[in-house]
Amino acid sequence: MVGLPARGKSYLSNKLMRYLRWLEYSVKVFNVGQLRRALARAKLAKSGVKEDQSAAFFDPSNPAAYKLRTQMAEECLEQLITWLKRGGNVGIHDATNSSRSRREALKRRVEKEPGMKLVFLESMSTDPAVIAANIAVKVSSGDPDYAGMSPEDAKADFLKRIQHYEQSYEALDSHGDESHLSFCKVIDVGRSVTVNNIQGYLESRIAFYLMNLHITPRNIFFSRHGESQYNVEGKIGGDSDLSPRGWTYAKALPELVQEAVGDAPLTVWTSTLRRTGQTASGLPYPKLAWKSLDELDAGVCDSMTYDEIERYYPEDYASRDEDKFNYRYRGGESYRDVVVRLEPVIMELERQENILIIGHQAILRCLYAYFHGLSQEDLPYIKIPLHTVIQLTPKAYGCDEKRFPLPIEAVDTHRPKPQPKTAATAPAATSGGSGPDTPSLEDAMTSAPPSQMRPQGVA
Ligand SMILES: O=P(O)(O)OC[C@H]1O[C@@](CO)(OP(=O)(O)O)[C@@H](O)[C@@H]1O
């Protein structure tokens, strides 16, 4: 990262980390400020520098502090490089890196590592209101640099720190000495992005993502469709209509949404399946139906109950319980596949303002995990109950959340994560993985209902 303090570097670092992690890269942010606080006490005691956080520590004319800050940025980079060598994909060096000499030093160090690439992401703000808001977040968010200080003193000190950095700040320049570097310069997040010497798939993805971000305050609402006929019957997938209780929810939804949104503009996104369209039918807002929002495709298991799947496809049922994120239904999809298919939806969501998505259980789990940065392991078990609107409000470091459950009864379609079997409860292992009482895959196929008779091995 490159940029003066209070220009949203940590915001962009964390946002990028969440996005890339969601796309299954292994990503970590290495924040020099945190390292400074962790290492400072001991080193400072030796170096004779009294304070590690007050503005004086950031004064470029204070040689001892300058040396220490340089050492800490280098130490942080070393930690990042070690982590990459152990298998990480993207390490984010979250520091000001605001002078050419510092960036040159980073470049020289990274060039020594075969196969590592360096891309600078500079965050600039020209809008005084955005800078003021960033300063307010820093001094009011319990930042450890200002623990025990009054907000006024903290703000005054932080402003002084910024002034110190401004004395030596050199922005990335695509026409000057740094024109050979790979970089993206983001000006007033959402207003302008300059891309220089960006090459390769991952770099381009990052640049494209940054181009789509904005920081205009907004809300994102999620709701599953009203209870469907299949939900009542315990069947998965399909394209059934709403149940009578589902219709009651669809009729109650406009009032709830109107209360939450007020007069602000809103766009409603649905899938192309009947149950989401029916749920959205009374909402007086522009609507868009996305094929990408259709529910996870359960392949040969579509329209079965979980009990039927266990009976006819016992090995698949067990595999799904073992690794639900990666399990792909025969002829259908896995959660992993759904994440890939939802990537354009995420990109468009980032570009938009207030959006209400009327979606499905698996789809909303994937989207929800992106906004909250949840792991792949937890993602398929997130609770997204029927007849509940979830409001997410993006904030500097994550999202605030409110849930609005409507008092309209519905079945519970959430299946908890199975507990790992202990030695005492686990069945004895048999060849093929099926117990004596469990039908084999062959049995399952020959006794499967006709609608499920499909060729094997199509996964
Ligand atoms: O991944 P699991 O937990 O099976 O949840 C996904 C399932 O949720 C369901 C309901 O059981 O979603 P939906 O109500 O949107 O139709 C199924 O259609 C879908 O297969």
UniProtKB/TrEMBL annotation:
Low complexity: bias regions: 420-431
Any matching Pfam family: His_Phos_1
Keywords: ATP-binding, Hydrolase, Nucleotide-binding
Membrane spanning stretches: none
Amino-acid positions noted as binding substrate in the UniProt annotation, renumbered to this chain: R224, H225, G226, E227, S228, Q229, Y230, N231, R275
Domain 6-phosphofructo-2-kinase residue range list: 1-217
UniProt keyword annotation of ATP-binding present: yes
Domain of life: Eukaryota
E.C. number: 3.1.3.46
UniProt GO molecular function: 6-phosphofructo-2-kinase activity; ATP binding; fructose-2,6-bisphosphate 2-phosphatase activity
Keyword Transmembrane: no
Compositional bias per record (Polar residues), positions renumbered to this chain: 448-459
Region called Disordered, residue ranges: 411-459
GO biological process, one term: fructose 2,6-bisphosphate metabolic process
Gene Ontology annotations for the cellular component aspect, listed alphabetically: cytosol
Protein family according to the UniProt entry: In the C-terminal section; belongs to the phosphoglycerate mutase family.
PANTHER family xrefs: 6-PHOSPHOFRUCTO 2-KINASE_FRUCTOSE 2,6-BISPHOSPHATASE LONG FORM, 6-PHOSPHOFRUCTO-2-KINASE/FRUCTOSE-2,6-BISPHOSPHATASE
Name assigned to this protein: fructose-2,6-bisphosphate 2-phosphatase
